[in-house]
Amino acid sequence: MLFHSQAFVLLFMPVAVGIFYALAQRESLRNWWLIAASLVFYGWWDVRFVPLLVSQILVTWLLVELSITLSTRWPLVLAIVANLSVLGLFKYLDFGATILAQVTGLEFAKASLVLPIGISFYTFELVSYLADRLRSDAPRYRLRDFALFVVLFPHLIAGPIMRHNEIIPQFACDPLRTGVYERIGRGLILFFIGFVEKFFIADRLAGIVDPVFKRATTEVPTLADSLTGALGFSLQILFDFVAYSNMAMGIGLTLGLMLPLNFNTPYRALNLRDFWRRWHITLSRWLRDYVYIPLGGSREGVATYIWATLVTMGLCGLWHGAGWTFVLWGVAHGIGLLVCRFWQSYGVPLPSLVSWAVTMAFVVLLFVLFRAADIAAAERMLVGLAGEGGLGTWSWSAVVPIAIAGSLAMIKVPSAELAMWIRPTWPVAIGFVAVAVLCILEVGEGQPLSFIYFQF
Amino acid sequence: MLGWRRFVWVGVGGSAAILVLLALFILAMNPYGNLPRILFAEHAITDINQRFQFPALIRSGAYDSAVIGASDSRLLRPAELERVFGGRFVNLAINAGQAYEQYRLADLFMREVAHPRTLLIGLDHVWCDDDADTVRTTFRGFPDWMYDDNSWNDFGYMLNASAIEISGRRLGVALGINEARFPAGYEVFTPPETAYDPVKVRHKLWKDEEPHAIVAAVPAYVPTSTERSRWRFPALAWLDEITRRFEGRVVLAFMPVHVASQPLPGSVEAARLDECKARIVAVAKGKSAPVIDFDIASEITTDDANYWDPLHYRVGIAERIVADIERALATRQDDPAGDWRYLDGPRAVAVSSD
After folding, report:
1. Which of A50, A191, A445, B227 could form a cystine bridge with A250, CB 3.0-4.6 A?
2. At residue B43, does pLDDT exceed 90?
3. Nearest by CB: A441 against B2, B7, B159
4. Are A164 and A132 in contact (CB under 8 A)?
5. Is residue B349 situated within a structural domain?
């Protein structure tokens, strides 16, 4: 069930939120209700995935309990290995087999397992808790709280990747505490801001971008098409993911829960390090805390720093997808981060505009790699950007949406914060009704496009 | 200042109230004729997307015979067909109809009509495309939900701007402001004959080239039997099902595409089309259904004046096609004047091995 579908807005959300508030004064019941509603939400995609999700939660929690009971750490290590193995099995088995086949020359049959939706996100949350337990940096949670931390439906499918200690304490807060209507009001506003970003911006850009990248699987696109595709996708993926994050935060807020900010105007970044502080913040934070720093980070010499950066960003790429395009995308960003760091340490400071332009050019070019079907298609796009496919003609129907989306992406304040600024006036209420009705009617026209990050 | 409490009630309550009113309006107007009839006893078509409008025509009970096809079959007039075949005809041909969509219409017709009499299938390239099983629909959308046996679930898909707009037009019909369209599914969709511009048409037919003789490729492409067996025609499984399941008479006719848009004789494409036609003949043979091929170089397809564009012939040609079908069924022979070929199994095999 997509957030931007009538089934969710008109059926699931009113029922889930309505019953949650009906049970608001009974913490145990309301949180069990949220777990049940979240499993229904998850099972709506494919009910076959529910047992796997429930098993991962139960096994992880039981191993943590065992570790506490026996005062030993091996169950935690076992739980981390088990969770990562499940992720590896579903997401990377065929990719690994392909690599093995290339190296050994042997043939391996493809498993072609269906990737359980959201597995990359919730596995990282489970692992982060286990890693914190290993560092004696996480409390013991009862099953209900632990399960709700993982399955809470606003963030279950595509994040934000939360840490246990920023959400579980909120489960005990009375949803009816002072400010309940403000939280619901702002939450609904934020939800529909995300709806507009997804439906009217990201999905419109998809219609421009998809044909270009499809063409690149067989031929070199023209310069106009390549540039349209590269810029269009860079904006599409931003608005697609920002929209999801805003909708997730909005739903969380209607339930009285604060979810972390995931994007902070990343295309205003003046350098690549700044970009990664603003782009998919909760993933960057996870990689920093559980990969980069454990690998040595920047405090153990230059060699360790280079190694830690490249491994972390390589894993970042691999997390997005089991394919060389993603790995190369991640490693290239790692190299970019190293160059950025050394330039900042030893180089001549660049004027802000030049620094921004270089950063964005780098980001946009690498998004070609991210979006392309394979390395060959990415090469054709890049060759097209170099003008090998001819200049082509510019289409206003592509340029105008990209220009509008680009302008919106440059607004200083993240759209998530807009909802926090708004005051409850009559014009705002009327505007809200108009936007909500328009969104619901528009999305009722047909099957809406899924979020890009659902495939990861 | 409204205050957050009132904002939530106004925002949620206002949105819900408007949506409920719109839903009631749609329910009352019944824009696709698929809901319980509250205000209007008769369904009036007011929209051009036939995929949404034709299920109600099929379910009306007024027809026992049908044409399915794409826009190149839309000009076959039901009254003419009734003269030839008898029965009560509805033309269910749809704009840019994919094979799958046509199959779904035929399937619905077979499920809903108690005593079906005649089914005329207007064939074109969509039945031969190798991606027909993956490219099943177009950007126009296809309402699967309207083709099942459960009308209760339909309303869940109808709360949208299109349904509201068509409901508005339906109200207009009731008030006498608008006129209903597609009586018996038929409508002359080509421009008025007075607007016919031969120069413009020639540009469309010949793709801005000068009209020229069609010269066959030499040497003609001769596929091996292995290659022929590997060609995929996934839509023919649907055609097979339709011809087997239809209880009445089935007639298949390849519609006449202008000669400049037919595969070049002797080319790979022509060989592939021949193979497709041969397989269609094999499919039709199980039902003893005649296959009439207008998709050849003929007086119809070589005369630019017969067309508006490569696929769409003029109204007079539609009448000629129906008359030709009548003669073809009577003679069971190729047309001596060359308008059609009456395909049978052995002859079609011979074509494919040329």
Report:
1. A191
2. no
3. B159
4. yes
5. no
Q: Convert the pLDDT of each residue in A76-90 to its tens digit.
A: 999 999 999 998 888
Is the pTM for the entire model greater than 0.90?
Answer: no
With 90 as the cut, is the pLDDT of residue B268 above it?
yes
Say which CATH number the domain at B328 has.
Answer: 3.40.50.1110
- The single residue of A164, A280, A320, A333 carrying the catalytic annotation is A320
CB contact under 8 A, B161 and A441: yes
Q: What are phi and psi of B120, to 5 degrees?
A: -105, 120
Closest alpha carbon to A255 in A247, A263, A244: A247
Who among A179, A440, A442 is closest to B19 (CB)? A440
Q: Is residue B43 part of a domain?
A: yes
Cβ-proximal residues to A290 (8 Å cutoff; 6+ apart), any chain: A127, A128, A131
Cα B309 to Cα B129, B203, B296: the distances in Å are: 21, 9, 16
- Residue ranges making up the domain that contains B276: 2-186+198-342
Q: Do B7 and A428 touch (CB under 8 A)?
A: yes
Total CB pairs under 8 A between chain A and B = 74
Whether B105 is in a domain gets the answer yes
Residues A214 and A218: their CA atoms lie apart, in Å, by 8
Split into its structural domains, chain B has a count of 1
Residue of B nearest to A189 (CA): B11
Which 3 state secondary structure label does DSSP give A378?
helix
Could you tell me if residue B354 is inside a domain? no
